[in-house]
Amino acid sequence: MGAGLNILIVHNYYRLPGGEDVVVDNESRLLREAGHKVILYTRHNSETDEMPAYKKLLLPFSFIYSNKTYRDIKRLIAEESIDVVMVHNTLMLVSPSVYYAALRSQVPVIQVIHNFRLLCPGAALYRDGHVCEDCIERGLMCSLRHKCYRNSFVSTLACVLSLKYHRWRGIYGKLYYICLTEFNRDKLLTLSQIKKERCFVKPNFTQYKGEGLPWDLRKGFIYAGRLDELKGVKEILKAWELMGSDGPELTVCGDGPLKEWCLDHIRQKGLTNVSYKGRLGHDELMELIGRAKALLAPSLWYEGLPMTIIEAYSVGTPVIGSNIGNVAAVIEPERLGLRIDMSRGEKAIEEAVLRFLRPGGFCYDKAAFEEAAFKYGKEENLRQLEEILKKWSV
Prior knowledge:
Helix content is 41%, strand content 15%. It has two domains: 6-205 and 378-392, Glycogen Phosphorylase B (Rossmann fold, 3-Layer(aba) Sandwich), CATH 3.40.50.2000; 215-375, Rossmann fold, CATH 3.40.50. It has a six-stranded parallel beta sheet, sandwiched between helices. It has a six-stranded parallel beta sheet with strand order 11-10-9-12-13-14, sandwiched between helices. A two-stranded antiparallel ribbon has the order 5-6. The protein is of the alpha/beta class.
């Protein structure tokens, strides 16, 4: 795209590593390799561990505005002659003050949409075991009754005040957006101040270049991700309980709040065909995914765009995933996997797994995975990303 740009990428790392962190690392590397200058401004939620008690009490209200972030961003823009600012996560320590610092420096801001935090304090449009769009349909105050952020009234109130304040300021209408899927974009556009012409759909990508086993040599199934209720982890293990000792092998990889529940359930129910591997290195995890019949992604919420699905496609592994939100958006039925109705719980998972095990139950389509590998590959992603940056930079 000609001369390289000076790009400031802003991200607030979560306490537990996740897909957003991988995207930030991948895109930073991709842009540098393409000749752009990338400056990272990052904060880590683990920084709060060292805070004195009085600062921790005030922390929820730093969600709204951070003078430190404002000063830091203004300084970096001036020192590095920044052309465009790309923002990923701002919670808890970065805050929306990054937007004001950039725009007052006359530098455009591109917000990458990984979740639904601009619409819902809980970010997931999910509560009490089901999808919930109350905050979209009836207003943000609904979240206070349910304490949707961290099950805390005070923290949820801080999120609500932040969203209301910055909506009132009209800041969200002044940003540009990268949405990972059309589904994400359509949900974002329910916020009236955001216009369609400011939104661009570009999926995440994978740089992994390994190969999976030939289809006829694969066996077993794998779950790789955060061990969390929203991911359908409980339903996966209950499905293996239904299949009993005659069921196929299941490998569970990841960490999260349900780790102890998973280990207890595997032990108490005698699930000898289930192995828990914990959090693995990327290459080791990809090798396991490339040996599996299918990756399981039975999410109960809409999801952002799970990196594990994209990476599964890169090694030719189909996905058994839920039929809602962004998981459904990236599974082409019968070609890249199966969509299942998770309102049926573990029974839906069991039926899909057994179908994969039947001869002819799933007709493996190598061409479909080659198409997906191109769509979610780094070359195509770089083309789209540079197109966006050229259009929206200074």
